[in-house]
């Protein structure tokens, strides 16, 4: 009896996979899916998304359904003239059960391959990536049908970025950051009291500066941390943090707090040299500047990096004017 039940279960599972395969390959083809998906996206944006094709996925995102966009571009503004990003591949895995039962968009995973992102903070403090419409209702008109989509909430559980190129410019503070190569794994877990973001990020050849001077050049970084957001106090705290700057390890601690009734955030960050050895710093020096071979180094090194203060657009505008 058990063997027969197992045989029937396997047979139904195989039949289900065959049906899904037929639907994806012969009915929901990229030619039919692409205009529908782009229509839904663009009706929900103060901008525009373009791509060569959209494919529905099941086997590569099992047990969730998903979609893969190829060779995309993202534009902002009503005229769609400002290119704020592009990507080779974007894959999204979605929990369809929650969407059908509770009208919740529960994104299990977002994967971006070779994205090129251009992030700009304008003089009024607004981001050029702030292109998501506030409404929760979408009407999409295609050549064949009209779709109406309502959703109550949207959550993203995991974000994976591979081989990204990022440029950031702040028109208020005149800060500029260039990251030719970035890899990121970001996942989130949530309960009634807090949200925990697990971050694992590496960068290469990072440069930080302004219109006047360069602060950092050719910086290689590695960051692994848990960002814990307290839903009551709105405090974001770093936990279990590992930081490396050009292969020098640091212990990092600190928090970000929203100041009540004010449009600013208090920042309190401290980094300490993990191995307080002078030899650690000496070995980290680039060989093109100093010959570090056949040199004996002994002694202790104390190094502490700290950032304390407030972030607010009004402060940067005041400093700029005076």
TrEMBL record:
Keywords from the UniProt entry: Membrane, Transmembrane, Transmembrane helix
Top-rank taxon: Bacteria
Transmembrane spans: 5-28
UniProt-listed InterPro entries: AsmA-related
GO biological process: regulation of protein targeting to membrane
GO cellular component, as recorded: plasma membrane
Protein name: Uncharacterized protein
